[in-house]
Amino acid sequence: MSDTPDGDDTSRTEDRGGARPPGRFTTPVKWGVVVFSALAVAAAPVPLGITPQSWRLLAIFVGTIVGSIVRPVPGGAMVLLGVTALVLTGTLTATQALSGYGDPVAWIALAAFILSRGMIKTGLGRRIAFHFIRLIGHRSLGLGYALVTTDLLLATVIPSNGARCGGIIFPIGKSMAEAYGSEPGPTAGRLGAFLLPFVYQCDVIICAMFLTGQAGNLLIARFAAETAGVELSYGRWALAALLPGLAALAVVPPLLYKLFPPDITHTPAAAALAREELRRMGPLARAEKLMLVVFALVGALWATTALHEIHYSVVGLLGVCALLLGGVLEWEDVLAERTAWDVFVWYGGLLMMAGALSETGIIKRFAETSAGFTVGWAWWAALGVLLLVYFYTHYAFASISAHATAMYIPFLVVLIAAGAPAPLAALSLAFFSNLSASLTHYGTTPAPIFFGAGYVKQRRWWLMGLVASVPNILVWTTVGLLWWKLLGWW
């Protein structure tokens, strides 16, 4: 998913040699940064009212988060080391340290990744994409929207933007560009230099539109609930993002098309290729039909949890069981889903650490101290400035999940202390966590995949990300705020 261990999504791509933030360091240097950050916190004077045990928890948490950013080892391994350190130092008992792996959120992530494997294995995702291309892919802008619409549909259930966008959408988009003779180099501008960044910029908007948009959103929802008492259920998240998300998808893509147009604007061959591919695929196979039914069932049950009260995690596991019983997936497929188990380890550990840290009083103390910087400010001014800071600090992160884990809770408590309505602050930070991934070629998992195709230079990619960030921020802070006010949420 996210952005897991994106992370979030992005870190796994980085493990495979994808793009990273500027400044590669050797592994010993990275470990030095991790150890120094933890020791620096541990050696600092313990504030009055905070126990030494709580301060050790903070030190290990900081070291784990820094490790998830500089990545001397994969994100899941980093979190596992942090969990083990909590027990060895006597900071938590083994039962407390491992409690996160019994958290339903970790099981939602695991089940959702396994569901995405079924979508890819059956080929249903590709079939959906080709249907959209056949319908609206006659022009380059329509072709882009066809791929984006596929991503939007899949995001209602599949929280791995790497699997959705990188595993299903990217190969199709690249093949469409190649069909028009657009290859990396002199012919990139024909179609590929527009189409691939276009799809990616829309993907980060889609990531913000659903709880299942990318894996980090599950963490963000937990942080919002535990820190501010704001419940971001599947339905509430989707409703909150509906209007600003659709508005952003209506504004950002045409702007990119106008400012960075492809040489080829008419693509009738794309629709023809899609028809031919659908002809070769033939009618829906049994496995595809069952996958489609499970996909629709899981999405419907997640959206109506308030009616039936079946927990999200149980719904996800129900979908997995249906695919196993129907023969769409084998148990070996579940065991082979490396990313799912990586995310499970990563999520379980971070959920436990964040929950334990919130009980220490350290976060409250941080809010009280930091609120002094905004004394005398109107809450809306503090909200605007801090949201911009939060958004553009994503230049320093290669993962939505790492960004949110490091900064969501501190920024949320400061905004609430400054007087901002809790639901407004929680929603704004949640959506900005995703939208900010537009900025770089390492912002979340699909970014290194799309950038790595070689159609766009880094300077152009960053420029497109910066351009897209402006309407995204404006749309979500105007349409979004008005929409949430109309819903009575603040």
Structure description:
- The chain is an all-alpha fold and 490 residues long.
- It has a domain at 104-339.
- It has 24 helices and no strands.
- α3 (52-70) runs antiparallel to α4 (75-88) and α6 (104-122) packs parallel to α16.
- The protein starts with 10 loop residues before the first helix and ends with a helix.
- Mean pLDDT is 86; it is low at 5-23.
| Helical/strand content category | mainly alpha
Counted beta strands: 0
Radius of gyration: 22 Å
Contiguous low-pLDDT stretches (5 residues minimum) are 5-23
Net shape: globular
User: What portion of residues is helical?
Assistant: over 70%
Instruction: Spell the H/E element sequence.
Output: HHHHHHHHHHHHHHHHHHHHHHHH
Mean pLDDT, nearest integer? 86
Strand content: under 5%
How would a crystallographer describe the biggest sheet?
none
Helical run tally = 24
Termini separation (Å)? 30 Å
Q: Topology, pairings included?
A:
Elements: H1 11-15, H2 27-43, H3 52-70, H4 75-88, H5 94-97, H6 104-122, H7 124-136, H8 140-154, H9 161-179, H10 192-209, H11 216-228, H12 234-259, H13 268-281, H14 286-303, H15 305-308, H16 312-325, H17 331-336, H18 338-358, H19 362-370, H20 379-392, H21 400-417, H22 422-435, H23 446-451, H24 458-486
Helix pairs in contact: 2-3, 3-4, 3-18, 3-21, 4-18, 6-14, 6-16, 6-18, 7-8, 7-9, 7-13, 8-9, 8-10, 9-10, 10-12, 10-22, 11-18, 11-21, 11-22, 12-24, 14-16, 19-21, 20-21, 20-22, 21-22, 22-24
